[in-house]
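Example: Cation transporter.
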Amino acid sequence: MAGNCCNSGCASAAVRGRYRRVLWIALLINLAMFAVEIGAGVRSGSVSLLADSLDFFGDAANYGVSLFVLGLGVVMRARASLAKALTMGLFGVFILVVAIDNFIDASVPQATTMGIVGTIALLANVTVALMLYAYREGDSNMRSVWLCSRNDALGNLAVMLAALGVFGTGAGWPDLIVASIMALLSISAAVQITRHALEELRSERMAVSDVERRA
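Written out as structure tokens, the predicted fold is:
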């Protein structure tokens, strides 16, 4: 029995070690893409690129939080997930507000810049998503990281479609539609993560209560 427990613990430690390395790589990729996209978003006037840049920054922060709580207990990881969910939700609301403001101004972004930067961002996010795919069914913290990477890849595809739409129509509404979709995806993911984290906290409280009753 002792040997089996040791093997299980060693395996868990190995998994955490691999996951930690993946998170560090993901964090660095997201920070680099944040710098690229925020500059491109401002220069091109694209709300979807700006949304994606802020998403990169938020994901980098999320990966940092995940690295911090990786070796901690279920309660701390679940609470960190709640904090990340709040950030994702606020990000979604902010982008919706910016999209509405740009709609009122009737601004038209630069389609070429959107397409080029969107393609680079897609390659970056697909790389991160593939690295994190193996951990998508973990706890709420791991799931939140996976959902962030998945949403980013979907968002990049949408940015590229928006670039085609802006190029073909000469209007800014495709960019605004994509930005709104990205915002709603972020809000939806925040709801999913919150539910998962709250369920983990409830399960942990029930487990503690059972132990106290038996004591």
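Residues 152 and 199 are 25 Å apart (CA to CA).
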